[in-house]
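Protocol step 4 of 6: structure prediction from sequence.
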Amino acid sequence: MTQPIASYAVETNDADQTRALGEDLGRVLAAGDLVMLSGGLGAGKTTLTQGIGVGMGVRGRVASPTFIVARVHPNLGGGPDLIHADAYRITDLNDLETLDLDSSLDEAVTVVEWGDGKTEAMSEERLAIEVRRASGGQAQRDGDVIDLEHMDDGRRRIVLRAHGHRWEGVLEDIVAAHGGTRIDQDAPEGDESATDE
């Protein structure tokens, strides 16, 4: 397991901002890139991937891959295809490699949700992204019914960890454009500190 060469954090206020960050990431992704997404249910992993698909210029609406394991979105402009996969139900890398995909993992950009601990071996050069739901909002009560919709105020903390030399100098402008910062990659989980860089 390689240590990240750099780590960043971006705060987004709603799904549109999360999607916009994904779009900018999609514009810098190249064939063979591996993006691993983690975060709780409903955190916004698919929303971020939708933005990546727009930024890459691929065909088809990116949807949660929960029931299909993996879907290939062909590129409309001659760039790499997007393989959007869900590793929640796979046991190891062999399960993903044996899928009958229309694109090779080497020739496409592969975005894997729930891939932690399963897909790191695919590439030492990878971008690991954790989407964290910010705490906030209040439950609304309508008589005896509690509406939890308002518990999610749309804010997210998106932590990007770049592994491998492929990512040197790639993310700084994107992170800065979205008001993010470089963080101390050795800080405890959930307690990253911004650096002076």
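Step 5 (inspection) to follow. Helices lie at 15-28, 45-56, 93-97, 172-177.
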